[in-house]
Write a structure and sequence with these properties.
Layout (H helix, E strand, L loop, with lengths): L5 H9 L5 H19 L2 E3 L2 H16 L10 E5 L26 H8 L3 E6 L33 H8 L5 E5 L6 H7 L2 E4 L20 E5 L2 H11 L29 E5 L9 H16 L3 E5 L4 H19 L18 H12 L2 H14 L4 H22 L5 E5 L15 H5 L6 H6 L3 E9 L2 E9 L4 H14 L11
Parallel strand pairs: 2-3, 2-4, 7-8, 7-9
Antiparallel strand pairs: 1-3, 4-6, 5-6, 5-10, 9-11, 10-11
Helix pairs in contact: 2-3, 5-6, 7-15, 9-11, 9-12
This protein binds glutamine.
């Protein structure tokens, strides 16, 4: 059961091969067995989860099932879920019980899906290794001495260890695609504005986007059909007609033009990862695709630009944690200002503080033009690079991350080398484009992801491109040994 696709699970539930309560219990038992070591989930609530499964069984019995009714999903702990502790990986929200549901949670609930629990993540989604979580490191099921990637590291480990049928993540600079690459599964960051950010705890609002983390492109399509759609409560949610993300899965790829950016195969990319990515591209040629060499000349600027814009937005978003309305409040203080300062000093971890400092600095009167405004201008150039590239090709391919999963602690004291994890993913967020990562093979027994970048709203085509590869190869079916 744990290896079945969402479609197969829905069929098993429909034909009463298994009930939702049984399926959910099966995952809960796995979580009980494996989570103490992996630390993929921060919060579990068996009673709530099983109550949802019971409701789902009734719904299935009534013939009112959707494509995900009764299927257990893991939810990243960045999504507010009513009655659930929602921490965003921070001490600041250690005891916060969300009073309402994020749009994404509502969509899954309305479709009758089961919420297995809230997954671990880097604090406020700031990180690439899950090491900044207040709730501890997450281990990569492929090698427990290594990180699962981040910030959606808990969802990633839960995917690799099959502690859920599928999971949600969010991606501000790579947090769905990089962990998907390091843990060997399929993840999609949609076009900015396609999935509502309502109730998703804000990190950098102009970059944050939620998306599916699943065993295959086909499963991602099923989840996109649940998650996407207009929501008036998010002013950046796009008013578009609902689409069926599965509609093009089976189209042949003959004639597909794949752009290969020279900057994505240059210095900084591990040689073993490069080999795997080239083999995947060779497979695409066998499937009838053509490749064209392209250039994204401003790639090297994407990290510095991101580390001005994202902290600027974060410093503003995180100003709401003042110890007054909700979140951590210091036990002792002398006056109001002291209460703000102590609450924030105690509630936030080191990486979050670093970002707040950078953000406040680049937004300050004397430096705004030199840093923030300049970064916004370069952001536009980065988007234009992609615009030009998509005149030459249908999709862009390259590595998702520069290497495979690294050792826990290896980069913890070197923020810049950690920030470089997102060198191939961050520009996609800056441009607002959709990007995905699919398993493409192994280097030193660790998973390697192939990144597929599409033009705006081209998710259905990207899922098609990924699905055809997954029909021809079996990398996406591989599981860590002993799990
Ligand atoms: N690793 C990047 C950061 O630390 C991106 C994180 C994300 O996508 N949420 O900001």
């Amino acid at each position: 059961m744990i290896n079945q696709s969402l479609k197969q699970l829905a069929a098993a539930l429909a034909t009463k091969q298994i009930s939702s309560v049984e399926l959910t219990q099966l995952f809960l038992d796995r979580i009980k067995r494996l989570n103490p070591e992996l630390n993929a989930y921060i919060t579990l609530d068996e009673a709530k989860t099983l109550a949802q499964a019971k409701l789902a069984d009734a719904r299935i019995a009534n013939g009112e099932a959707t494509s995900v009714t009764g299927i257990p999903f893991a939810q990243k702990d960045i999504f507010c879920a009513k009655g659930w502790r929602t921490t965003c990986g921070s001490k600041m929200l250690e005891t916060f019980i969300a009073p309402y549901d994020a749009h994404v949670i509502t969509q899954f609930d309305n479709a009758g899906a089961v919420n297995l629990g809230k997954t671990n993540m880097d604090e406020f989604a700031m990180g690439s290794s899950n090491e900044t979580s207040y709730f501890g490191k997450v281990k990569n099921p492929w090698d427990k001495e290594r990180v699962p990637g981040g910030s959606s590291g808990g969802s990633a480990a839960a995917m690799a260890a099959r502690l859920c049928a599928a999971a949600t993540g969010t991606d501000t600079g790579g947090s769905i695609r990089q962990p998907a690459s390091l843990c060997g599964f399929t993840g999609l960051k949609p076009t900015y504005g396609v999935v509502s950010r309502y109730g998703m705890i804000a990190f950098a609002s102009s970059l944050d986007q939620a998306g599916p983390m699943a065993k295959s492109a086909e499963d991602c399509a099923v989840m996109m059909n649940v998650m996407a759609g207009f929501d008036e409560r998010d002013s950046t949610s796009l008013q578009r007609e609902n689409e069926d993300y599965s509609r093009d899965l089976n189209k042949p790829l003959a004639g597909l033009k794949i752009g290969l950016p020279k900057e994505y195969f240059a210095e900084g990319l591990s040689a073993e990862v490069a080999v795997v990515v080239q083999e995947a591209i060779a497979q695409y040629r066998k499937l009838g695709a053509e490749t064209v060499d392209i250039s994204l000349p401003n790639t090297r600027l994407s990290i510095p630009v991101y580390y001005v814009i994202a902290p600027a937005e974060a410093s503003s978003n995180l100003s709401r944690y003042d110890g007054v309305r909700y979140g951590h409040r210091a036990a002792e203080y002398t006056d109001l200002l002291d209460m703000y300062c102590k609450s924030r000093a105690e509630g936030f971890g080191a990486e979050v503080k670093r970002r707040i400092l950078i953000g406040t600095y680049v937004l300050s009167a004397g430096y705004y033009d030199a840093y923030y405004l300049k970064a916004q201008q370069i952001r536009r150039l980065i988007a234009q690079d992609f615009e030009a590239a998509f005149n030459q090709c249908d999709v862009i391919m390259g590595p998702s991350a520069p290497g495979t999963a690294f050792k826990i602690g290896e980069k913890a004291d070197d923020p810049v080398s950690m920030y470089l994890q997102d060198i191939y993913t961050i520009a996609v967020n800056l441009a607002g484009l959709p990007g995905m990562s699919i398993p493409a093979g192994f280097a030193n027994k660790l998973p390697v992801g192939l990144q597929i970048i599409g033009n705006y709203f081209d998710e259905a085509r990207m899922l098609n491109v990924a699905h055809q590869y997954q029909q021809a190869t079996d990398w996406h079916t591989k599981m860590p040994e002993g799990i």
